[in-house]
């Protein structure tokens, strides 16, 4: 790999030298370039350039002192506008998102050291030693294939996590936490809707600025979720002053941990992790992390083998300037679709929106190739775009508006049968001659889809129970609904009975002809209306209550997350 990187770096340096010579400013970095917006997108905009793309590197100059970690090369120093059939494609260089402005020393021997050595060196948490730890050591030791699969997958992300932890002077035991949370699977989803390798529930993800909408879920974003998780853990440590308690709060919730501490304080009991009363999942949480730590420290003792991990980034980031299909991005990068998604798992749709995704992550060896192929690409980059419904529509009507089949519209936007698309919903639709502009930042960041049942308009009808009364079940059967629904309308029990003469409320379609709850006896004097005709029911002024919209894209706070039931794609 070192030879490949050295060659790539030299090519990048040669390109830089040529660009510098042509500019006539051999010692001055090129200024940021301005680009007018593509046709139809409005005012001119500043091209978003990655940090470090102007950095001048000297391949022959050795650094003053050896860097602790070899950084990947900055392979280009200019943003280039390339003419194509889809306006202009802005191409920038791949960078290391951890150290975008660091010079590169390709001969740094630390890049070839084992990353596990670096992880072990940063262990600073106090150790636990109890039966729970022994149990989980045994669990992992008897599952070598699972440990291998989990650690190989984690190797994509571990360098980045360790680097971020060291920048914050946090213990590197925290770098092992995704093994406990998700087996380092960024696609993991728990039964409590916790998502990503750090397992954020929707509400906590929002608290830490992890966008969740139609197009992306940043709880699965490798960079964003790591930043958010370490912010959260740092805050919990400041709150409790102890890493074990901070980890308990990460799993159980800070309020629960604080209440457990308060109970022990009032009872005159210790308030350390082992002394608190907590759910089994939280009781086992830190011992499980301790077991993984022990295995990383001495894998031979457990007859396990950890895969060798190099002490350099597995991935680089490449800025995205135009909307581009996920399939095309993977093809240009020369990686499989699965590999591309493993590094960019936040994508919910088959298109990457430049306004909402500043960068994509690519394997170390593929980033430069992607930049070159993107620069030379001719043709459309994105075949999909966003369309905001101007009014409430049936899927068939929306499909006709955007020129696609109803089946395709339902499938790509996950619209179930018998649902309406409410006004303001954002749908993924094909690009066309009238929809060529990239999606705006507002839509990319706030897109949501709201659905409502496709049922006729309802009206409220008040019935009068007969002399012998009526059961909730009989009313439900008569109006083809459920006892629970009738009970909800009338605030009674589903197995209840209406008293004789009492009012009964039902909601029915406007076209439905409503009969009395029970026919009036023949001897009874009918009520007369203004025209002398009998009226069997009293109909209140229609007060239609629309069914609540079902929204995807707007986060809903679930019950406290339960990581014991994480569904893994590869567990």
TrEMBL record:
SUPFAM superfamilies, sorted: LysM domain, Lysozyme-like
One Pfam family, short name: LysM
PROSITE patterns assigned to the protein according to its UniProt record, in alphabetical order: LYSM (PS51782), PROKAR_LIPOPROTEIN (PS51257), TRANSGLYCOSYLASE (PS00922)
Tree of life domain: Bacteria
InterPro entries: LysM, LysM_dom_sf, Lysozyme-like_dom_sf, Transglyc_AS, Transglycosylase_SLT_dom_1
Keyword Transit peptide (UniProt): no
Segments forming a coiled coil: none
Keywords: Signal
Sequence ranges assigned to domain LysM in this UniProt record: 459-506
Positions of the UniProt region annotated as Disordered: 548-571
Signal sequence extent: 1-26
CDD domains registered for this protein in UniProt: LysM, MltD-like
Family: Belongs to the transglycosylase Slt family.
Name assigned to this protein: Transglycosylase SLT domain-containing protein
């Amino acid at each position: 790999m070192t030879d490949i990187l050295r060659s790539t770096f030299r090519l990048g340096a040669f390109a830089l030298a040529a660009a510098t010579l042509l500019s006539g400013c051999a010692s001055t970095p090129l200024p940021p370039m301005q680009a007018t917006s593509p046709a139809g997108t409005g005012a001119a905009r500043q091209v978003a350039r990655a940090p470090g793309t102007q950095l001048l590197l000297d391949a022959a100059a050795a650094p003053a002192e050896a860097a602790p970690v070899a950084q990947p090369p900055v392979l280009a120093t200019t943003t280039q506008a390339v003419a194509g059939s889809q306006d202009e494609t802005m191409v920038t260089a791949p960078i290391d998102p951890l150290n975008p402005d660091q010079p590169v020393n390709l001969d740094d021997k630390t890049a070839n050291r084992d990353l596990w050595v670096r992880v072990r060196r940063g262990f600073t948490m106090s150790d636990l030693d109890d039966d729970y730890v022994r149990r989980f050591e045994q669990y992992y030791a008897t599952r070598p294939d699972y440990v291998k699969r989990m650690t190989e997958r984690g190797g994509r992300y571990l360098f980045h996590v360790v680097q971020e932890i060291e920048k914050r002077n946090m213990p590197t035991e925290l770098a092992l936490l995704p093994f406990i949370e998700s087996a380092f699977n960024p696609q993991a989803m728990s039964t409590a809707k916790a998502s990503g390798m750090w397992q954020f529930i929707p509400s906590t993800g929002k608290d830490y600025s992890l966008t969740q909408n139609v197009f992306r879920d940043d709880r699965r974003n490798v960079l964003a979720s790591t930043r958010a998780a370490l912010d959260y853990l740092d805050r919990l440590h400041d709150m409790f002053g102890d890493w074990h308690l901070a980890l308990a709060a990460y799993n159980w919730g800070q309020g629960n941990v604080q209440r457990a501490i308060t109970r022990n304080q009032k009872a005159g009991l210790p308030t350390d992790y082992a002394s608190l009363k907590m759910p089994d999942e939280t009781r086992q949480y830190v011992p499980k992390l301790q077991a993984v730590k022990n295995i990383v420290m001495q894998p031979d003792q457990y007859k396990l083998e950890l895969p060798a991990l190099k002490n350099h980034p597995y991935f680089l980031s490449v800025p995205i300037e135009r909307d581009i299909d996920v399939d095309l991005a993977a093809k240009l990068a020369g990686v499989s679709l699965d590999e591309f998604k493993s590094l960019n798992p936040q994508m919910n749709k088959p298109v990457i929106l430049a306004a909402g995704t500043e960068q994509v992550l690519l394997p170390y060896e593929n980033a430069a190739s992607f930049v070159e192929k993107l620069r030379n690409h001719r043709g459309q980059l994105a075949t999909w775009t966003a369309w905001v419904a101007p009014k409430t529509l049936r899927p068939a009507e929306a499909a006709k508006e955007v020129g696609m089949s109803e089946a395709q519209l339902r499938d790509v936007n996950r619209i179930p049968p018998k649902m309406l698309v409410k006004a303001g919903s954002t749908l993924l639709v094909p690009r066309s001659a009238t929809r060529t502009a990239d999606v705006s930042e507002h839509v990319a960041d706030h897109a949501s889809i709201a659905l409502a049942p496709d049922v006729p308009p309802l009206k409220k009808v008040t019935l009068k129970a007969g002399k012998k009364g009526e059961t909730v079940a009989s009313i439900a059967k008569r109006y083809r609904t459920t006892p629970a629904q009738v009970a909800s309308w009338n605030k009674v029990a589903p197995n209840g009975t209406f008293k004789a003469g009492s009012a009964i409320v039902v909601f029915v379609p406007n076209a439905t002809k409503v009969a009395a709850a029970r026919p009036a006896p023949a001897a009874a004097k009918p009520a007369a209306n203004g025209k002398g005709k009998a009226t069997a029911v009293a109909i209140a002024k229609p007060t239609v209550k629309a069914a609540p919209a079902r929204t995807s894209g707007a986060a809903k706070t679930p019950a406290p997350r339960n990581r014991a039931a994480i569904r893994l794609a590869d567990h």
